[in-house]
Amino acid sequence: MRLPTPVLLVVLTLTVAVLCGLGVWQVQRHQWKQGLVAERAAQLAAPPLETPAVLDLPSVEVAWRRVHLVGTWDHSRSMVLANRVRYGIKGEELVTPLFPAAGGPAVLVDRGWYPEAERDRVRASLDAERQASIEGLAVDATGRTARQTAQRTWTGLAPESMAEAAGIPLRPWAIIQGTVASEDGRPPAGGALPVQRYQPFANTTPHLQYALTWFGIAAALVGVAVARFVVAPLRARQDAAAQTE
Fold first, then answer.
1. Domain match, 27 and 54 both
2. What angle do CA 146, 149, 155 make, to 5 degrees?
């Protein structure tokens, strides 16, 4: 079944309009994401939020800020994030509650990554610390969920899920202890463990490539329409005129 020409033209016009709209939306998403990258880079460059003032801030204002916390570790409630691969090596990350010296609920701190083979040595070193004075990246974990595996490890950093297992109240934000990772992604010099690094916010979605794809499909449809409704009839008329001469 062939659609009448007017109907086909309407369908093609609507399709091209939708494709162009998708392309424009992807460009807008790219611009928004780049603005977010710049905003969070500026937050990381700002001086760290200090105890006790940071404890009174909502999670959204703490997120993507460097935070300096002072308090006491509770190693008895440490939890492990398993199956964390870095530098091509399977490892773990240790998460320990920190009770702020200013009081209030504990803050979960991701103390860093280590290979599974170094577990006992690294855990013994970290467990020897009693008092804490740390700096790291704050993350808003509100609404995050994670589950505890049969091996009693955890699938993610989620204070709301971990609070019940820990048996203590936890703040809805957490800290990744350490400093920003190097751009080349190499491990720290000297092989110090645990590796205490966090990644800056980056735009990993290729919005511009998506936009070019949508615009390209729209352009191809326009080309097909021109060939079908302009070029083909013109050639037909020219052929008909040549046959009558």
1. no
2. 35
Q: Are residues 56 and 79 in the same domain?
A: yes
Asked if residues 214 and 19 have their Cβ atoms less than 8 Å apart, the reply is yes
Look at the chain and report how many structural domains it folds into.
2
The angle formed by the CA atoms of residues 100, 105 and 110, to the nearest 5 degrees, is 70
Q: Is pTM beyond 0.70 here?
A: yes
For residue 77, what are its two tokens? Answer: 């409630």
Residue 200: partners with Cβ closer than 8 Å, 6 or more residues away? 40, 41, 44, 180, 181
Tens digit of each residue's pLDDT, the chain (245 residues): 577 888 888 999 999 999 999 999 999 999 999 999 999 999 999 999 999 999 999 999 999 999 999 999 999 999 999 999 998 999 999 999 999 999 999 999 999 999 999 999 999 999 999 999 999 999 999 999 999 999 999 999 999 999 998 999 999 999 999 999 876 667 776 678 999 999 999 999 999 999 999 999 999 999 988 988 888 788 877 777 777 76
